[in-house]
Amino acid sequence: MPKVKTNSSAKKRFKVTGSGKITFQKAFKRHILTKKSTKRKRAMRKDGVVADSNLHFVKRLLAMK
């Protein structure tokens, strides 16, 4: 039986925390920042947590299931 490969793009985008949650970096923080409010940019610094509705799919990409 062959080993299950981890999706290469997913392993670059997601990190698994110690408690088992899967986090990611927020989008829209790279350029064109002048029109975005300071509050919005500050919120994008924090890691996002994968929603329960997408968790099974992301875990499958990371070969966790």
Averaged pLDDT, please?
96
| Helix proportion range | 25-40%
Strand content: 15-25%
Number of helices: 3
Molecular shape: elongated
Strand order of the largest sheet: 1-2-3
Q: Using the CA coordinates, give the radius of gyration.
A: 15 Å
Q: How do the SSEs run, as a string of H and E?
A: HEEHEH
Poorly predicted sequence stretches spanning 5 or more consecutive residues: none
- DSSP, total strands: 3
In whole angstroms, the N-to-C terminal distance is 16 Å
Biggest beta sheet summary:
3 strands, antiparallel
* Structural class designation: alpha+beta
Question: Which tags fit this structure?
Answer:
65 residues, alpha+beta, three-stranded antiparallel beta sheet, 3 helices, 3 strands, 37% helix, elongated
Short description, anyone?
It is built from 3 helices and 3 strands, in the order αββαβα. It has 65 residues and is α+β, with helices and mostly antiparallel strands. The mean pLDDT is 96.
Task: Give a written overview of the molecule.
This protein has 65 residues and is an alpha+beta fold. Helix content is 37%, strand content 15%. It has a three-stranded antiparallel beta sheet. A hairpin with a 5-residue loop joins β1 and β2. It is elongated, with a radius of gyration of 15 Å. The two termini are 16 Å apart. The mean pLDDT is 96.
Describe the secondary-structure layout.
Blueprint: H1 8-13, E1 14-16, E2 22-25, H2 38-45, E3 47-49, H3 52-61
Antiparallel strand pairs: 1-2, 2-3
